[in-house]
Amino acid sequence: MKGKVTAIVPAAGLGKRFGQGGNKPFQALGNKPLVVWVFEVLESINEIAEIIPVFKRDDMALGCELLERFNFSKVKRIAAGGKERQDSVYSGLSLIDRGTDAVLIHDGVRPLIEKSIVEESIRQLRRVDGVVVGVPLKDTIKAVQSSRPQVPNEFFVQKTLDRKSLWAIQTPQVFKYSVLMKAYRRAMEERFYSTDDSAIVEKYGGKVKAIIGSYSNIKITTPEDMDIAELLLRKRAGCAA
Asked: What are φ and ψ of residue 205, in 5° steps?
């Protein structure tokens, strides 16, 4: 994929399941906040011309302070987050110059993304409208349902799914700018909401390709995820040494 790529980093989530106070993207992993690990990888990629962080309005001052401290040259504008993730991404999209050819979206709480995976996702955006990164599922997957919602922890198996065709989708996700903007505008007009950007592009006819990512590219959702990320980070540092 040749042309200008703009990266949007949603970092405005409420983090209800994290439960440690403060906004999750600013929690320290090793010696840096989670979101800084993301910015460093994106900053190092030649194809990415600009990075647009999306922060909660209450975190704008903290975000600006962080960006100034680490001096990221590709961050020129900051978008304000919305009620839902989709609102936040759309806020970032509204700041993008029309000269942009592609948009890369990567969660601000996936700090262990590898540079090579980001570069490959951009390269693969040639004959398709979007590229998503993911990994095949390892576990057996069952569809379950509660017959009595008022009874906690009572669920019944409806069916077992064939995991051979099931992937856990991650970020980054990369899209042709014109396709993503058209799909997002329609979704916002029709009030169709999804937690996955590629699902929006798919809904309006976009062709999306999946490429293999990494099982280490975890999303920090709970405090236990931070423990796992610390272990993965130490393992990575050991390999680098």
From this structure: 90, 5
